[in-house]
Amino acid sequence: MVSSKEAKKEYFLTADDLANVRYEPIGGGIGIGPPTKCYLHEHLVETSVRKHGRAGVVKKLEARRKREEKKRMKEEQAEQARKRLKTITNTSADGAAAATSTTKTASASDTQEIKNLRKGLLKMAKENMGFQMSGAPKNWKIEVPGISKATFAALMGRPTDVDLESFVKNGAYYKEKYEASKLFRTEEAQLTKDFNRECVTQNIGPYVSVSYKPSTMELSISGYAEMYATMSYRLFG
After folding, report:
1. What is the mean pLDDT of each run of 10 residues along the chain (237 residues)?
2. Which H or E element spans position 74?
3. Predicted TM-score of the model (pTM)
4. How far apart are alpha carbons 213 and 152 in whole angstroms?
5. Residue 169 parent element (H or E)
């Protein structure tokens, strides 16, 4: 079975295209949102061919293959740059001092400006947490202007990579999935927000999506939240 999101992406379809395709609802419920519409592969293939034609589908598949190959090459180049960066860091000291130097480099990279930025980003993320109409946690997103390349590199734990060679660029953006605890540089216990009226607590998910556009110096961070009940029951009377 294929979800709506995957159907649009993998079979080159839109919501209107899927409107008349038979589906099976899976999951859903109170507090977790509506069920997911899931489709059969053969039905999606028929719909895609009917819309684009066989030649059109083949052309789109080939274009996707070229995009993925180009992306893979960029990722390999970024990985090689990260290895070079690590080598430079490790060889900056020798013997037992090398390990100490590496640890200090990681912590010393956070200037007071970066520490304040991390704290501010976490505050903004928590302010954007909330609920969907269904009662499920909503996805959150924050945008920050005026972020330089050097600041972005430091925020991502690579302060010496001011040219962003170790990052993968997709069009005008550098995008990366990053651990929330590392980005905000805090314990997981601090990545929570209590909603006392609803008697629940939301946790920022373990990973966030970070996007940076150097031409406009815009930083965007998005993520999701996990929710659990914190209600304490009382007996009245």
Report:
1. 93 95 86 83 96 96 92 82 69 48 48 95 96 89 96 93 90 93 91 91 95 96 90 43
2. helix 41-90
3. 0.62
4. 10
5. strand 169-170
